[in-house]
Amino acid sequence: MLDITIPNTSAKEFNFDEPNPVEIGIQIKDIKDMTKSLVSKDEITISYNPSDPTWLHLSANGVEKKVRCKNVSLMKRHKIPPVNHKWSMDLPWKQVKAFLVSCIESTNFEVLVNRNIVSFLSKSDDESASLDFKEEEEISLKIEGESISTILTPKTFMNLLSVSSAKTIFNFRGGENTVIETEWKEGGLILNGWIAPRT
After folding, report:
1. Sign for the pseudo-dihedral over CA of 111, 86, 177, 173
2. Residue 101 CB-half CA count within 13 A
3. Which sign, positive or negative, has the C-alpha torsion 148, 151, 154, 160?
């Protein structure tokens, strides 16, 4: 699950005159054709008129697109999963992505958190991959206890952080086989993600 917050300070221009918050229901697949070709220097304008609630208007690189809004009362609401953090750290996405790519077809990998080292381990009959972060690498490691293990799926983890750039540092926290929580900033956005452990 991924939650994206767009602070109004990250927008070049932001106008909102309504006295109360407005909910707009859209499906990601309806806007991704417009956004997937954008690069970091491109701008996209998103506009919505509450007096004409049927459409969300998008504009980028001279292309205009209208997307039909969904009835928010009929959309499934996801609750933030319960978390029980026993450890947290700040990790570089570049190294973690390299590890995940090396074991992307594996059914799972282990995150083993100890007081002085964090290990990502993937093993099968045919291959193994590992990645270690030591405390002195300034990953801001905090842990309650001595050794905590969690099993995750490489593809799920890769998909969650797929919008991250190579220079991204993400906060990574969890417990013993509990829901993992991630948080990072990208292009002015604040992203929070949750991954269920593989049991």
Report:
1. negative
2. 7
3. negative
